[in-house]
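Appendix B, Record 12. Input sequence as logged:
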Amino acid sequence: MRCTRSGRSYSQTRDAIILQRGSISHNNSNLRHDTSVSDAWDVYWKGARGAAAPIDDGVRNPVVRNFWIDRLSSLLRENPEMAILDIASGDGAILDILSSIDDRIADKVTCVDSSPAAIDSIGSRFPAATGVIADAAAIPLDDNGFALVTSQFGVEYAGTDAIDEAARLVAPDGQMILLMHMAGSLMHRECAAALDAIRATEKSGFIPLALSMFESGFAAVRGADRRAYDAAAARLDPAVRQIENTIGKYGENVAGGTISALYSGVATIHAEIQQYEPQPVLDWLHIMKEEMTSFAGRMQSMNRAALSEAEYSQIRRRIQDRGYTVDLNDRLSDLGGTPLGWLVIAQANS
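Logged structural output:
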């Protein structure tokens, strides 16, 4: 993975971390993202993705994926050598699609994300690509450097300054395609429900109470007084009822099934505690607690990023004021007409 600027390689700038082949240089003191949110996404891209994937990664939606395949295939037929910038890349969903169209394209693609883990993931799969760890609102790349600038559910997290950055980086006659979170969309509603369900689970104290019960339970298995175990199990009971109510209200798949997995896992271990070793169980609960916190951070950031119609209209005007012609198509919807996100397809004037 490489990065070049003005004909020379560099590994570090004020606002970014650039990944070169085999090296990483760190200087992220100027990244503008909220630290807790950035940490939550970094944990996610490090690999704690499983349960969250249906909500977190909209490109897996076939309508979203087909949109990108159709649009990118057409553009690559017209200009197969185009330089492409993908902003807020995550672990490279757009690059995955580009590579499915042309498996030699990675060396023409630059991916920007504030998460080191995300850029590292891209670099491990696409070593020819360029990776930049930077705030989307302060990208350390030269003006007008890309024939195509894309973002899929990402650039809006960094605010309107990031929209200006995207516009700045498009070459004359180039194109910008932004798919952004929409307030009230299916994904937004799912994120809001997931956040509510996680907050209810955290408020119940389910994980700390389960930890206490299992610590006492494993001690009882080794011969300690069972009364401490029974008392801890009784303290857990109200939290169990709260989890059951939460699952009943939001469904078993809320928060990607994380809460259901926690509930069923604790129930299974509780029923067969003599069959388990203590440390793996306690470690699992600590991991689940970290994942719930991380998941809540991601859902909160998604909810905040979702744009109202007025905010979206302001973004369109902002892009037009910079000399772009903006396509009339303003949203992407599923086959039933349910909106999935706001869409900006803008052509830079020469």
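The CA atoms of residues 219 and 225 lie 8 Å apart.
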